[in-house]
Design goal:
The complex is a heterodimer of chains A (262) and B (286).
Chain A lengths: L2 H4 L4 E9 L7 E10 L4 E6 L5 H8 L9 E4 L2 E2 L8 H4 L2 E4 L11 H13 L3 H14 L15 H13 L5 E4 L8 H16 L10 E6 L11 E6 L2 E6 L1 H6 L3 H7 L8
Parallel strand pairs in A: 3-8, 3-9, 6-7, 7-8
Antiparallel strand pairs in A: 1-2, 1-4, 4-5, 9-10
Chain B lengths: L1 H11 L3 H4 L6 H32 L5 H15 L4 H25 L6 H39 L2 H7 L4 H38 L6 H11 L2 H28 L7 H29 L1
Helix pairs in contact in B: 1-3, 3-8, 3-10, 4-8, 5-6, 5-8, 6-8, 6-9, 6-10, 6-11, 8-10, 10-11
Chain lengths: 262, 286
């Protein structure tokens, strides 16, 4: 009996081929074998166009692998349909750049999944939405449309939208991308709170997976790391594994960006 | 449902034919165009069936979200266009009805007035003109809105939130456009017939309002009402399906949106003419 039988994995990928969203005939990453256990915090690193976003889309069940299998909460994503909506809603997804609905205000964006899934009138959804916006310091921007919002706050609004249904697994695609120093620090602290358990979720810790092109910001002894390099997914383990990795790609992802030091 | 939609999109995005080099001969050119037309028709047919299935299957889902969206679309494809249609009705009355009434009166053929008006305005010009105008005003907006939403990744965001994009984005537009075109057609017909008599009256045509409207009423039968309703609903359905299909299925990059909007409007006009032809056959057959 394997270890996974004792601790059912949140994400299970076995020999999965990760295709590209923009061109389904392309394979971004081959033969991914990856298990994410409940309560873990994974950081998947890779350069641009290495397939990080597509890997995350597969992990959310938004895409299905061309070969191999991908299970989310024990449910094969190839079979995801209306009947598996409950499993789908256990996963929260924050897209790079937010991808908020441009026609709706921030509050409407955050309320939409709650209102749609629970068939709530705007007044019934107002309280939880206001609480969440308050928690994420978004209350002053509640009635603003995304196009009038700075990128830092758009990303935060997207995070609020992903959290409103209280998911158990939160996937964040390059969440630090484009954020200034203050918002980066806020987000890192906020994700730490989610991971360890926050009262908004009744103290229940969330399982987190983030992608990044800069490993340094995610340094933490209890986080797990993986890297995408030349169509290959490699698990590095804890931060010690990252530091000792000989791969040129990992060294690049750990390097100080050009122009930040004199 | 998501799998079905993906297949339709994959079919529609078959770029082999669009990317292929210039044809060597006219037969190649015609063959390629024909094949593309068949692929498009297949994609549109599948998309229409998926939309119908979602309308039927999810009629009770998330009503608190969907009902305001449907009302908004009815307003956009109906109520908001009423001022423009008032102008069109007056113009139509002056250009077509007034002149027809005047010409028939001059040759003493006012007995044919009712049947002429019913054929020209009620059966043909009213529904077709309404459909084309709504296609131009609202259909184009559909393609641009949906194309932009798709290019910006909003469709994937909906799926990530467990919201069916066809249900949330397409169904309100289909219902709104079908009901909007139906209501606007009635409005246009009444306006054109009324203003037509007004212009004829100003030209001293010897015809009382009572005679004019009695003739029209006598020329109308139950078939006109039934087929008018079906035809306008069909116009709305197909225009919405064509424009939403191109908006949602095709563009993945912002720069493609305008090109796809032109293609969608062209195919929308073709769809309207084909629907109209089917109803002419029905009129003649029944």
């Amino acid at each position: 009996m394997s270890e996974t039988d004792f601790h059912p994995a949140v994400i299970e990928m076995a020999a999965a081929s990760i295709g590209a969203l923009r061109d389904t005939t392309l394979t971004e990453v081959e033969d991914v074998n990856w298990w994410v256990q409940p309560g873990e915090f994974w950081v998947v690193a890779g350069q641009q166009y290495s397939g990080k976003s597509d890997l995350l889309m597969h992990a959310a069940g938004l895409m299905t692998p061309a070969r191999g299998s991908c299970r989310v909460f024990g449910c094969e994503t190839k079979n995801f349909g209306e009947a598996q909506i409950a499993e789908r809603l256990r996963v929260g997804f924050v897209f790079a750049g937010g991808k908020l609905f441009s026609q709706l205000t921030v509050a409407e964006n955050v309320a939409l999944p709650l209102r749609y899934q629970k068939n709530l009138a705007p007044a019934d959804a107002a309280r939880p939405v206001a609480d969440l916006l308050e928690w994420l310091e978004l209350a002053p921007f509640a009635d603003i449309t995304p196009s009038n919002l700075a990128a830092n706050w758009r990303q935060r609004a997207a995070l609020a939208r992903a959290l409103i249904l209280q998911p158990e697994l939160l996937l964040l695609d390059n969440p630090l991308g484009g954020l200034d120093g203050r918002h980066r620090q806020w987000l890192l602290k906020f994700l730490e709170q989610l991971w360890t358990g926050h009262e908004f979720f009744g103290g229940r810790p969330l399982t987190l997976v983030v992608t990044t092109d800069d490993l340094r910001a995610w340094q933490h002894p209890r986080r797990k790391f993986a890297v995408l390099e030349e169509k290959t997914f490699s698990v590095l383990g804890a931060w010690d594994g990252v530091k000792s990795a000989a791969s040129p790609a990992v060294k690049e992802l750990l390097a100080e960006p050009v122009g930040t030091t004199i | 449902m998501r799998g079905d939609l993906a297949k339709v999109f994959e079919l529609a995005n078959t770029q082999v034919f669009r990317r292929a080099p210039l044809p060597k001969s006219y037969t190649d050119f015609i063959g390629r165009k024909l094949f593309l037309a068949i692929l498009t028709a297949q994609g549109l047919g599948a998309f229409a069936l998926i939309t119908l299935a979602v309308i039927l299957k999810k009629s009770g889902v998330a009503q608190s979200v969907m009902q305001p969206r449907v009302r908004h679309e009815i307003s956009r494809a109906g109520v908001a266009l009423m001022p423009m249609f008032l102008f069109i009705a007056l113009a139509l009355g002056f250009l077509v009805v007034g002149q027809t009434v005047s010409a028939l009166a001059k040759v003493g053929a006012t007995d044919y007035l009712g049947s002429t008006m019913v054929i020209v305005i009620v059966r043909e010009l009213g529904p077709l003109l309404t459909a084309v105008l709504v296609l131009a005003r609202v259909g184009t907006a559909n393609v641009i809105e949906l194309g932009t939403a798709r290019a910006l990744g909003e469709v994937e965001a909906l799926e990530a939130l467990g919201i069916d994009p066809v249900h949330y984005l397409i169904v309100p537009r289909v219902i709104g456009m079908a009901l909007g075109i139906f209501a606007l057609t009635i409005y246009l017909i009444l306006g054109a017939l009324g203003s037509g008599y007004l212009f004829a009256f100003l030209q001293d045509v010897a015809l009382t309002p009572g005679d004019y409207f009695r003739q029209i009423a006598e020329a109308l039968n139950w078939l006109d009402f039934a087929l008018l309703a079906l035809k306008t609903l069909a116009f709305g359905f197909f225009i919405a399906v064509v424009t939403c299909y191109h908006g949602l299925a095709q563009p993945l990059r912002l720069e493609e949106v305008s090109r796809v909007a032109v293609r969608a409007v062209t195919q929308g006009v073709i769809a309207c003419v084909l629907v109209d032809a089917v109803f002419i056959v029905l009129y003649l057959a029944i």
